[in-house]
Amino acid sequence: MFERFDPAAGTTILEPDAPGPGTWAGCPSVLYDAERERILLTYRLRRPRGGPPPDRGYECRIAESSDGVRFTDLWSVTKDAFATTSMERFNLQRSPSGGWLLYVSYEQPDDGRWRIDVLEADAPDEFDPASARTVLTPAGTGTDAVKDPYVVRVESEYRMYVSTFLTAAGPAPTSLAVSRDGIEYRWQGEVFGVGTGWDRYQARISGILRSGERWIAFYDGAASADEDTEERLGLAVSADGRSWQRLSVDEPWLASPHGTGSLRYLDALELEGSRWLYYEAARPDGSHELRLNRVPC
Question: Are residues 253 and 233 in contact, defined by beta-carbon separation less than 8 angstroms?
């Protein structure tokens, strides 16, 4: 249904700003905007925890490209704008009015637990962090953390797949929230639980494609907290986007040939008869870079 690809044969889109573990350029989310005839990419830059400031997830950006390979930055934000210690995945979507929505995830300043906000703008280079509105919080969902939003539009409904830590020690399944306007979301709870082996600690849906009557989900799995931030890639399918069957039961579907083997945050587009797969992958020196593979549909 979806053949494995060689992650080492892909194209490097962005490199980290330094070598070594904990330094990343990745966390991609992609959207094709037919009006602009551009691929729009959100991504994150990260430095090791406890390193020279600013450390951890210190900057997130929006970039655009006409060819899907060479990107130009349109907008960026540093973690100081949210008074946070770290930011994680952002996700860009069109609003019902034709404007833009940017979902952001970051650690709450008061208790360090992850939350999700939304920004609105008329253009993807006009977002103002001061206008952020609450979407999901740990208190509002009865969890320890909600982060890494991935949004799919299904007719008039926005479906947000959320990495959810049930307790500070895990596990971390994927939950769902739904909305009509992209602003106010109704919490639906867990839709994709952790497994029993290599992904028994975390199962985070990072990207979704429609294939005929089926939905294909790429997800990041980890066996324990020790593998958190170095997840590998799994595959799942669904008939409705709400109830998922994992295909990667005994082992990851794909891993990087380098470092820890980490291959995560895969998001995908179908363009020009190909699937454009953007992902974060470990390099030989332990850092992570953002890569692209194009495979036939």
Answer: yes
Alpha carbon distance 175, 192 (integer Å): 7
pLDDT tens digits, one per residue of 198-228 = 999 999 999 999 888 899 999 999 999 999 9
- Peptide bond just before 173 cis, omega within 30 deg: no
pTM: 0.97
Note whether 199 and 218 are within 8 A (CB).
Answer: no
Task: Quote the CA–CA distance of 30 and 69 in Å, as a whole number.
Answer: 12
| 257 CB-near residues (< 8 Å, 6+ apart) | 7, 8
Spatial separation of the C-alpha atoms in residues 73 and 243, rounded to whole Å: 37
C-alpha 272 chain-centroid distance? 23
Question: pLDDT of 104-120, one tens digit each?
Answer: 999 999 999 999 999 99
- Please name the residues in contact with 33: beta carbons below 8 A apart, sequence gap of 6 or more: 39, 40, 94
- Residue 38 CA to residue 220 CA, distance in Å, equals 27
Domains of the chain in sequence order? 13-296 (2.115.10.20)
pLDDT digits (tens, 9 = 90+) for 226-277: 999 999 999 999 999 999 999 999 999 999 999 999 999 999 999 989 999 9
How far apart, in whole angstroms, are the C-alpha atoms of residue 23 and residue 28? 15
Q: Kindly report, residue by residue over 64-111, the tens digit of the pLDDT.
A: 999 999 999 999 999 999 999 999 999 999 999 999 999 999 999 999
List, as one string, the DSSP characters of 169-208. Answer: T--B-EEEEEESSSSS-EEEEEEE---SSTTSSEEEEEEE
